[in-house]
Amino acid sequence: MLQDELKEIRTQLRMAMNGVIATSMREKGIDYKLNFGVPLPEIKQIAARHEPGSDLAAALWKEDIREFKILASLLQPVDDFPFKQAEQWVKEIPYLEIAEQCSRNLFCKLPYVDNLLLGLIFNVEDEYARTVAYLIWMELFRVGKTVVAPVRAAFIVECMRTIAWPDFGASWKEKQAAIKAMKFYGRQSADHAKQMLSGFDDFPEFMKTPEGQEIYNDLKFEFEYYS
């Protein structure tokens, strides 16, 4: 039954495949064993034709196929996804798109999201752990949700660590995810916006750099626009 459903999904993806998108991804270094190049809206349409289930999601996730991994994030039930399994998926994320889709479709909806966030933001070993933490925060703040005080405190401190600590060595994707999360947090209230901007006061040397000025001004403009 499971193999039949996987075969059906392959057929649906093949019918929706877009060679131009797949080729463009390969040229940018996004190299899966198989990439159908199916746009996200069509992947979601395919997901809607199938019943969510842990066995199906696990079978999809283990394959090195772009669309299978995205479908796994859409079809994995949030109430049947253990903490350890969430951590394992983060370890196995191959590219930023998958990190974004997992964070949006699954991770931000988990009942233990606060504990997951704390585990990820202090994990400097897995390539995507901290990036995923910021992506989850972004999704939560985007829909107006709050997090418990320790998780909020970690968010504020770690954002500045990511973007302003010269010796930390955060990746470009981690910095961009942090900035996006900061924007959505600051949009929630004037107090949140002030918290984000005041964090720069502790990094006067960073504020003297073009990067520091650019990030600060970008955030300031964002908060003024949404105030």
UniProtKB/TrEMBL annotation:
InterPro entries: ARM-type_fold (IPR016024), DNA_alkylation (IPR014825). PANTHER family: DNA ALKYLATION REPAIR PROTEIN (PTHR41291). This is DNA alkylation repair protein. The lineage of its organism: Bacteria, Pseudomonadati, Bacteroidota, Bacteroidia, Bacteroidales.
